[in-house]
Design brief:
38% of the residues lie in helices and 26% in strands. By secondary structure, it is an alpha+beta fold.
C-alpha cells in the first residue's frame, strides 16, 4: 500500500535524500558525464536545481511506514526559457554538470517551443520522476502523473511538459498520452566539433513531450 500527496516543506530533506540515491545516480545524462556515481557524491549544482522546485507543486508517494517510494518533481515554468540556463551556466561549480546545462541550452534554442505554442505563457513542467526499484510496476507513477494533471488543471495551465533523456521515460511519457514535439540524437548536440554527452544505449535521443489538457 502507498499514499500520494503534495510534497511539503517538512519533506524536502527526505525528498533530497531519496533523489540522490535514485534519480541522481540513474539519470543517463549524469551517467554520461560521470557526474553522480553514488548517493554520497557532492552534487551542489543538481542539489540547487532540485531544491529550487521544492516543495512547490511536486508530488510524492509514501509506503505504510512513511518512507518515500516515488517522487515527481514539478514546477510552473514560463514557455520561454523555462529555466534560467545562462545564470545556471555562469554559476555552475562542476565542469561535468556544465555540459548538461550546455546541452539543455542547445535544446531550447533548437526546439523553440515558444513558436510551437505561441499563445501559452506558462507550462506545467515535470522536471524529474523517480520510483524506488522495489516499488516499480505497481502503478505509482501513473497515480503521480494523474495528480500532476489535476494540479495543472487547478492552476488553469493547459500544457504539461516533460523532457526524457532516457529511452524508458520516453516510452512512459507516450503511455501517458504525451506527444513528442522535439527529438534529437545526442550525437547531434555538438560543441567545438564534438558531441557534448553520449549516454550509453539504449538512451540515444533527447526528447521533449507535451500534453494538452484542453
Amino acid at each position: 500500500m502507498y499514499s500520494v500527496s503534495r510534497i511539503c516543506e517538512r519533506d524536502v530533506e527526505d525528498v533530497m535524500t531519496f533523489m540522490k540515491r535514485t534519480f541522481f545516480i540513474d539519470e543517463p545524462l549524469y551517467k554520461g558525464v560521470g557526474y553522480c556515481n553514488s548517493a554520497s557524491d557532492d552534487t551542489p549544482d543538481l542539489d540547487e536545481f532540485c531544491r529550487a522546485a521544492l516543495p512547490g507543486v511536486s508530488l510524492m508517494a509514501k509506503n505504510e511506514e512513511g518512507s518515500i517510494v516515488a517522487t515527481l518533481i514539478c514546477g510552473i515554468s514560463p514557455i520561454v526559457n523555462p529555466t534560467d540556463f545562462l545564470s545556471a551556466l555562469k554559476n555552475c561549480k562542476c565542469p561535468k554538470y556544465k555540459k548538461v546545462i550546455q546541452m539543455m541550452i542547445l535544446r531550447e534554442v533548437i526546439m523553440e517551443i515558444w513558436n510551437i505554442y505561441p499563445n501559452e505563457k506558462q507550462v506545467f513542467e515535470i522536471k524529474m520522476a523517480s520510483t524506488d526499484a522495489k516499488w516499480r510496476n505497481k502503478g505509482i507513477m501513473n497515480q503521480l502523473m494523474k495528480e500532476a494533471e489535476n494540479a495543472a488543471k487547478e492552476l488553469n495551465i493547459r500544457v504539461l511538459r516533460i523532457e526524457t533523456s532516457s529511452a524508458y521515460s520516453a516510452k512512459s511519457a507516450e503511455r501517458h498520452g504525451y506527444k513528442c514535439v522535439f527529438s534529437r540524437a545526442y550525437t547531434e548536440f555538438m560543441l567545438d566539433g564534438k558531441p557534448l554527452i553520449l549516454p550509453e544505449p539504449p538512451h540515444t535521443k533527447d526528447n521533449v513531450y507535451v500534453k494538452e489538457l484542453y
